[in-house]
Amino acid sequence: MFNMTDVTWDSPVRARPSHLVELPLSPLQARWWFLCTSYPGGMSPLVDLVHRLRGPLDAGAWARAVDAVVNRHEILRTLFASRPGGPVQLVGPPDGIRMEVIDLRDLPAGRREERARELLDERRRLTLDLETGPLVHTSLLRLADDDHVWRMTIHHILADGASLAVIDRELTALYPVLAAGREPDLPAPAVQYGDYAVWQAHADTEQADEDRAYWREQLAGLVPLELVEALPRPAAKGAPAAEVTRTLDAELTRRIEELARGARGTRFMVLLAALHVLLAQASGQDGFAIGIPVAGAGRARPELAGIVGLFNNALALRGDLSGDPPFGELLARTRETVLDALDHQELPWGQVVALLDEPADPGRAQGFQAMFLHDEVEPAARLVLPGLRVEGFPLGIPRVLHDLMVYAGPSPEGLSLKFVYDTGVLAEPTVTALAATYEHLLRTAVEDPGLRLSELGKQR
User: Fold this and answer.
1) Where in the chain is the domain with CATH 3.30.559.10?
2) Which are the contacts of 210, defined by CB distance < 8 A and separation ≥ 6?
3) Contact by Cβ (8 Å): 127, 61
């Protein structure tokens, strides 16, 4: 029997009592609720799943598979309501989801893909009402009889990036069975995100207190990152985003991974250490932090690993570049920083921000102004459908909260880099130069990890 007085951080998450209808928000959801209701207007924070499906798609079976995913996960049917004691979650009935179907075959062949991007970009600029919804939208665009683009857009208060992988796995299992005319037998999730929110609301706070103490010490005296070549900072964020792309070849990627293994680290750690060097050189500072997204400790729990929900968190990783160390030493320091931070990843970022002695500034993100995002697997590779070739369908990013976001992930050529930047803060030549310098830093670091940081930028 569920006993809310006996819940600890080590207790498994169990199904909530059936009489609970109005559910609490998780701390991460509470942060998004505050941001979305305190600063109304503009676009809602969204996560997108977009795939291009080439081949003979059974559109009816695909729609039923998407319905099944929505019915399996309560959070995709959840709305929110204000109450005197604070906001609550309300789960809707398992009625599937209306899929918007748009036929573009009447357009000239050369215009269809462009029009598909326009339509999808429009839908990514939606403002979704947390109380009235819907908070999940899905579309199927038909470019040709054997060429479709499918997209699902979800309010970030409901889901995170890892949730998209969960959805892909379930569609991989459900679609072939439904297309064959059979009923799927995928086991139902043992618990739902609402169960996790109830569990979190009653868990003890000892771990949270330890995490607060850790982050208070780690981020004491944190200074904002200001690049020397930045534009005058606007009074408020809101400028559109742009991006600069670069590809690291397979040989450099191999050597990065070799360096990582030799340091008992990961490719992510090498890339993060080099990014700290890049931004330190570009700013003349060494007391700043770089933000990273993490899946959240909740994902490590077996009962939660396969559910859709908001578990991801942000960590502010402060690089220790003191003493002009060799790159190999910086990599060792970065490894320790990452591992220690992951041990304290459960405290929601909003609560970490509250610990900072940093006033709110509408023109600057709090805590960190640059983010690093690293993928081990291409998103399109997560979805495997018989008879269909699944491809990505890249879309632009309308705007970003941070000045600079660096994405790294595998590509057929090696490693793909994308520098997404706020055009109100950075100009395109500045970001292009940053991307080129970053590659150069990595090449010199893998060639000679014994070079000191001050020497890396001079090896041409």
Assistant:
1) 4-198
2) 344
3) no
d(C-alpha 414, C-alpha 175), whole Å: 31
The predicted structure's pLDDT at residue 4 = 44
What pLDDT score was predicted for residue 1?
33
The residue count of the chain comes to 460
Instruction: Please tell me what DSSP assigns to residue 365.
Output: -
Residue 361 — φ and ψ, nearest 5°? -135, 115
How confident is the chain (460 residues) per 10-residue block, as mean pLDDT?
48 89 93 79 80 97 98 98 96 96 96 95 87 96 98 95 93 97 94 94 78 94 94 87 95 97 96 97 93 84 92 92 95 96 88 84 89 79 90 82 93 93 96 97 96 79
Give burial (CB, 10 Å; 0-12/13-18/19+) of 107: middle
Burial class (CB in 10 A: 0-12, 13-18, 19+), 307: buried
What is d(CA 27, CA 196) in angstroms, rounded to the nearest whole number? 11
> What is the rounded CA–CA span in Å between residue 192 and residue 405?
32
At residue 243, the pLDDT reads: 93
Q: Within 10 A of 101 (CB to CB), how many other CB atoms are there?
A: 13
d(CA 329, CA 263): 9
CATH architecture of 206-456: 2-Layer Sandwich (3.30)
CA separation for the pair 305, 166 (Å, rounded): 9
C-alpha 428: how far from chain center: 24
pLDDT, residue 112, reads: 97
DSSP 8-state symbol, 364: B
What are the phi and psi torsion angles at 364 (to 5°)?
A: -150, 135
* Start-end of CATH 3.30.559.30 domains in the chain: 206-456
CA distance 402 to 364: 7
Contact 204/331 with Cβ under 8 angstroms?
A: no
* Residues forming a β-bridge with 154: 47, 136
pLDDT at 218: 94
Do 285 and 277 contact (CB within 8 A), yes or no?
no
| Structure tokens, 320 | 């220790």
Q: Find out whether 311 and 298 touch, Cβ atoms under 8 Å.
A: yes
pLDDT, position 258: 97
Write out the CATH class of domain 4-198: alpha beta
Judged by DSSP in three states, 296 sits in coil
pLDDT of amino acid 377? 64
pLDDT of residue 2: 37
